[in-house]
Design goal:
By secondary structure, this protein is α+β, with helices and mostly antiparallel strands. The chain is built from five helices and five strands.
């Protein structure tokens, strides 16, 4: 997958041949080979509590939403995040755009974490009576402190636990490139990383 992202002619021709002859290979699937919905690992076992508070002057809906998210985070089996695994390099720039593939010939495995029940709320407003004018869109990603904390804890689970678990660990190069290059050691470092590199995600429905 990384060779395809680098537009390597040999890799593209091989993938085209495999798909054309056998309907197999990287062009026959989405590239995401593992998906899981997971709870906040270790929260119940160690008694840790993540505070979930509705914002000041919150609407009835927002209060009920906060109650629901609180129940999810306190449950040992209710998923608070979606995990995606893909055999290629996936990263984002600070402006939310996709980062280009790393140069060289290294191959990567990316694990993406997406909040299942974010509390942050953005806004969309018209800017002009002219229907062709673009609206003002502010997603306010991770503006609710609970979202940042929960996502950071899931990120730490990937960095400190999941990547060291077998059989995954034995298939990762210990001396290879990593992203982030500096290990995430605690919630504070994970939150700082998210502030610089997290991007929005959605699925269209309807």
């Amino acid at each position: 997958m990384d060779a395809l992202a680098r537009q390597d002619p040999d890799a593209i021709n091989a993938a085209m041949t495999e798909y054309g002859g056998k309907k197999a290979g990287p062009f026959s699937n989405s590239g995401t080979n593992t998906i899981a919905l997971l709870p906040l690992a270790g929260k119940v076992a160690d008694g840790e509590v993540v505070e979930v508070n509705a914002e000041a002057n919150a609407s009835t809906f927002s209060k009920k939403q906060a109650d629901f998210v609180r129940s999810v985070l306190r449950s040992p089996d209710q998923a608070s995040a979606l995990y995606l695994m893909a055999p290629t390099y996936i990263a984002f720039n600070e402006d939310g755009t996709g980062a280009p593939p790393r140069p060289g010939s290294d191959t990567f495995l990316s694990i993406i974490v997406i909040l299942s029940h974010p509390l942050s709320k953005g806004s969309t407003h018209i800017t002009s009576a002219d229907a062709s004018s673009s609206p003002a869109i502010d997603p306010k990603l991770l503006s609710h402190p609970t979202d940042k904390t929960v996502l950071a804890k899931h990120l730490l689970f990937v960095s400190k636990t999941l990547r060291q678990a077998e059989p995954l660990a034995s298939n990762l190069a210990t001396s290879g490139q990593r992203y982030p290059e500096t290990p995430l050691d605690d919630v504070a470092s994970a939150e700082k990383y998210l502030e610089q590199h997290a991007a929005g995600a959605h699925h269209v429905a309807g």
